Amino acid sequence: MRVYEERDASSRRTTNSREDGGGESQTPDISVFLPVLNEEPNLRPLHEKMRAALGGLGLSAEVIYVDDGSTDRSLEVLRGIANEDSRVRVISLRRNYGQTAAMSAGIDAARGRVLVPMDADLQNDPADIKRLLAKLDEGYDVVSGWRKNRQDKALTRKFPSMIANRIISWIGGVPLHDYGCSLKAYRRDVIKDVRLYGEMHRFIPIYASWVGARVTEIPVEHHARTMGVSKYGLSRTLKVVFDLVTIKFMASYQTKPIYVFGTFGVIAFLVSLLAGLWALFLKYVEGVSFILTPLPVLSIVMFAVGVQFFLMGLLAEMSVRTYHESQAKSIYAVRERIGFEEE
Q1: C-alpha pair distances (Å), 206 with each of 4, 14, 64, 129, 272
Q2: Among the listed ranges 27-41, 103-117, 199-213, which one has the minimum average pLDDT value?
Q3: Neighbours of 115 (CB within 10 A)
Q4: Is CB count within 10 Å lower at the N or C end of the chain?
């Protein structure tokens, strides 16, 4: 595919041979990474589909499974898959950190020029990877999957998702039908510096758009879950709303929080001024004593609130600068790495 023909010698490196006798390999064209949480019965069938899909691309690839603290035999199954397929690497997190942290671990470990996340529950179809890559070849930087014929319950999954997607598109400024679909394709350079928290993995297209990436979407297959138990519920909707408010704040005021706090401070000062002037008007024109109206107290209180907002803004400015200078803490801890060459 055209997008991969741009590789040059500086982007290539060899890795140590694997214990299974595999030879040298180049940095892969594609990195597919999958968060895994108690998906033991799905992993073998999924990987067979993955092998077939990747084998038909004619491109080098790696597959990274991130075990997010599974309590079933998922990790044991992944060990077996890694022993059988030299393209597979496995990351086992110490506990269940959530899908965002697991995806962040996958992004950090991926070496490919294109990164493709997807779910491990067999609802995403690995065969769609080829179509995502073909869309990237048209000049896009992010291609998002759209579960147009979504095989989920209408009341508890599809309807809340539809409302959430419209709100996210409106606030984030990137009109997509399905932010919740994990199957996407990213050029590495548009997400290499993205830091994920909370439930923010679904907002990666918005982050990419903010740095100038071209974002689009295509319909992808979606299959009903046949094995295992869904990890999603209505409780995630409220978390998504909170995270959406957070990213909107970060987009507008992350490097200048004094703007938002200062704006509220100015509003408080204006209310204080108007209340004070009105109190003076009532006193000296209408003959109403200060003690007969709450306006003097309101004026004093709002003046104090305005001062507090400005001080909070200054403290936030100091915190932001400290954060950008010193923050390097990861949001996950790795218990074990399988199939990673020693550095």
Answers
A1: 24, 34, 24, 21, 39
A2: 199-213
A3: 24
A4: C
Cα separations in angstroms, 318 against 70, 246, 256, 304, 305 = 40, 19, 10, 21, 20
For residue 100 the two structure tokens come to: 């965002």
pLDDT of res. 27: 85
**CATH topology assigned to domain 27-252:** Spore Coat Polysaccharide Biosynthesis Protein SpsA; Chain A (3.90.550)
What is the SS3 assignment for 187?
strand
Q: Which residue has the tokens 């879950």?
A: 225
Q: How much is the CA Rg of the chain, to the nearest whole Å? A: 26
pTM over 0.70: no
> What is the Cα–Cα distance from 127 to 132, expressed in whole angstroms?
10
Give 48's contacts (C-beta < 8 A, 6+ positions apart). Answer: none
Tokens of 339: 């199939």
Domain boundaries, the chain: 27-252, 258-312
Model confidence at 254, pLDDT cuts 50, 70, 90, reads low
- 144 has which bridge partners? 184, 217
DSSP-derived letter for residue 4 is G
CB 310, CB 261: distance < 8 Å: yes
> What phi-psi label fits residue 110: left (phi over 0), alpha (psi between -120 and 50 degrees) or beta?
beta
Among 109-123, 285-299, 322-336, which stretch is predicted with the lowest mean pLDDT? 322-336
Tokens of 249: 């704040």
